[in-house]
Design goal:
The chain is α/β, with parallel strands linked by helices and 626 residues long. 39% of the residues lie in helices and 14% in strands.
Amino acid sequence: MLKSRQELIDIRKEYAKYLTAQQHKILVCAGTGCIASGSLKVYAEFKRLLEQKGLPCLVELKKENEENGISVKKTGCQGLCEMGPLVTIEPEGFLYMKVQVSDCEEIIEKTVLNGEHIARLAFQKGGIVRKKQSDIPYYQKQTRIMLEHCGHIDATSIKEYIAVGGYTAFEKALFEMVPDDIVKTISDSNLRGRGGGGFPTGRKWSQVARQKSPIKYIVCNGDEGDPGAFMDCSVMEGDPHRMLEGMMIAGRACGAHDGYIYVRAEYPMAVERLKNAIAQAEEMGLLGENILGSGFDFHMHINKGAGAFVCGEGSALTASIEGKRGMPRVKPPRTVEHGLFDCPTVLNNVETFANVAPIINNGIEWFRSFGTPTSPGTKAFALTGNISNTGLIEVPMGTTLRDVIFDIGGGMRGGAKFKAVQIGGPSGGCLTFAEDHLDMPLDFDSLKKAGAMIGSGGLVVMDDSTCMVEVARFFMHFTQNESCGKCVPCREGTRRMLEILERIVAGNGREEDIDLLLELADTISSTALCGLGKTAGNPVVSTIRNFREEYLAHVRDKYCPTHNCSKLRRIYIDPDVCKGCSKCARSCPVNAISGVIRQPFTIDAAKCVKCGACIENCSFGAVKEA
């Protein structure tokens, strides 16, 4: 157990020496996405083969690493999630994709032992093979601050985190700064909360710091319930100590001695890695009583949520930690005054805390050199949808959607046409974009002017085959299902909006329904108790604003232009193509197709249930959809 600052400095030098001595590294991505693709089996096979071949296999950072051994590490998310399992080989920097157990021996023999590149496992597009991660366009426009260690160090090792400079910011905060200095540094950096609305982090910390209560708390929101979002999960899995360090610095700044991490139970790997990280920090003396002889005490606790989306809201989250039903309360008082256990509480999300240590280490001007003047720094996004490259990215604030979608994301999958992007989830803000919005910068203020919010950072890209009315219905179904039911506007209003949208996609909509949806959305936004209700109508309002003609087609023409709404499908048989084989009639479950053999058949529209069985079974392409 470390008992002084000097002991931490000494052991950091020692660990850095051991890490530098590792000549060959096999970095296997052990994020949830790659684990689902079998990366842990790949990791185990690398270890087995090295041992079988009599090669020194290093899995822990220790003195023996000064020998020329081969280290095998389980890292955090390496970014291109759909291409997993991902394996990086150092010092060559080769990034291999979709690695299978059967590829491990070839990688050891050719790359690890002889430095040869295996082209078939590399990123390829347009006939060009990209050997290194830094050569791939997906990574070239990214700037990794929060995610700088993810994919490069052992996600389960406090020793490696310390070796690359981990806990130097906490050390500085303990011995070189007074609490007011820390708060001022975070305030002057203009770090804004990465979990939703972008509230200034320093202002929140200063409000808690000046409270007279002898008991204060630091709470990390790791609930992350937005559909398509996994940024916080990747940090908790891939670099948990970075987040813990930010919370500990916040505790020092605000006079708090206990930190609570609220993480959803659906993130078992994140929970496991956090527990491991906390146990390591306690064993090393970086958590607990009189840390490094400074007189500062800090303890960390984990609370698992049951997956209620509303518990992403501050007051609902703290109520859940206290063992109560997770429901928001009326404000004021605010969480900074009466939060967890009715005490002043700093509540930030994972990404916000993960940005604290780099700011303390590198300074205000360094941080503000990224992003925009009002939204400095970087932002992580989960890039998903109908796009060529999906995964986890981190870019400077102010990066345009065009850069994200076409340069980093590689454009639309299959050459389709871009149509819209849903940003931030239903809680943080959902907005669709027409083509002329592609050059809009992704920062707090620009998106607010456009009627949206960055939210937590989910980016779902949609092509021209997507029905925007169905998108609105999907998100309204999610929001209505997740409403806690405490306030009438959200409980009843979202239900009414969902009913209208379901009526529209079923072909029973009326033209006046469009204005009624806008009216309901405005009422809910103005009167709901918490952020879930206040933003519930965003998917509907934004899709109506940008794709009103698509709504009109559904309600006026009873037609879905993208052919996604099954009740609005128009199926017919082309008489010039039909051979009269009767296969379509035999496949119809409701006997809606009739005709004479070797003569064109017809569909009775009144009987047709639009199941599409006739289209699938026609061998001549005669059954078509208008």
